[in-house]
Design goal:
mainly alpha; homodimer
Chain lengths: 245, 245
């Protein structure tokens, strides 16, 4: 077995994956942030991305359910409540439905997940299965795409406000909230991974987990781009925007 | 609960899903069968479809592993040996690698599954997980896309022989063999589903399982079409044909 990388070297390799493979570089995000998407394309993005949002508490709960370490559980549970809110409501899923309403979708339709692309489902379900089935360390490592999320969210908030009439403080609340939540989460996750990946094999498994996660994000945009942008082949059973009916 | 459909009505509804959603209607198959794919696109299809072939014995083994019914197990085990061959070789996976060599790919590269699209992996893994996690009846029902496969394989053999120089009895052995295997398998599977789906809820669950399976097949072609045909956006890490390098 090769020698373990130093923490600095290992962290640099994790960050390098973001620089090369994070979905901020997908052409669909280019169109979104340049104000080039029409209403139906925006709706398709919001609808499909909801399925991802809805998968997050499932993967986080199964991660906690496999963690013997109480400190990890105490920290990680905040991710579930960040997304699910409390008995009185709130939370990222609810905020995403406010965004959905803002782009002209029926929140009940979005919440039903009818019309979500099969490609979206398979990618998000792959993430849930990964976290459920792989060693805990890799499950934590797969969350580290959050290292790269705040920059994307900052860009997105500014771009949406500039280009799209639906964008305002209410509809964009999801992204604003994530600006503060994600850095706190990922500081813990990164520290955990750096401390628990003790040998080269574990470090490489963490890199593979993060690479897998960038594939999960990228494949969602591929499916969306193919169905709604170019060539625009909507698969049978998927959401059909008004201008394509 | 609504009344159960008659066997004839239930079977007609299963076949209707094929008529509407089977992947013979995907534009990628139109291009393949009209001789419109270049070498790199053909290679991408063979490479990605290998991942599906390789997933089949896994899902069949997990189905058998959950079946109390010895008759089902005795019947179903032939599917595994059809794909895996015996100790002396043979089998569908090996025949697929012969096809891969025929289109100019290194069989060892194909067998490694490096370069397979994330969209392919997620779709095939979704199928394996579905068969592992859902009730046995639904797992059997999800195999019924084989009702529609022989017609597609007949069309394909004729079309490949007409349009592509690589096509001959050796390279197309996979498809020829499936012409006799699939009908025998599916006769058992269809009979099993018709006999064991006793009420409307079970019948509807079987329809949903078959619909899910058509999504698994369709999403693979969507990913392939997006990466290698139109718009031709190859995701990071995926196979890059020679003419795209």
């Amino acid at each position: 077995m090769s020698d373990a990388w130093s923490a600095a070297e290992f962290e640099a390799r994790l960050r390098q994956i973001g620089a090369e493979r994070y979905h901020d570089k997908h052409p669909f995000h280019g169109l979104l942030h340049d104000g080039k998407l029409n209403k139906g394309q925006l709706q398709a993005w919001v609808l499909n991305r909801f399925y991802y949002q809805k998968s997050i508490p499932l993967k986080d709960a199964s991660l906690i359910g496999r963690a013997d370490d109480i400190d990890l559980r105490r920290e990680w549970i905040g991710r579930i409540t960040d997304h699910d809110g409390g008995k009185d409501g709130g939370g990222g899923i609810e905020r995403w439905l406010i965004l959905a309403e803002g782009v002209g979708l029926d929140p009940a339709y979005v919440a039903s997940c009818k019309g979500v692309l099969a490609g979206t489902r398979f990618a998000c379900d792959a993430y849930v299965h990964f976290v459920r089935d792989r060693p805990l360390l890799e499950a934590v490592a797969s969350s580290l795409t959050e290292l790269f999320a705040p920059d994307l969210h900052k860009t997105r908030i500014a771009a949406l406000l500039e280009h799209y009439p639906f964008a305002n403080d209410t509809t964009l609340a999801y992204f604003r909230t994530r600006l503060t939540q994600a850095p706190a989460d990922v500081a813990f996750g990164l520290d955990y991974v750096l401390r628990h990946a003790c040998n080269r094999d574990q470090q490489e498994a963490c890199l593979a987990a993060l690479l897998f996660k960038t594939d999960v994000l990228w494949a969602q945009l591929d499916a969306l781009h193919h169905a709604y942008v170019s060539p625009g082949l909507i698969p049978p059973g998927a959401f059909v925007p008004e201008d394509r009916q």
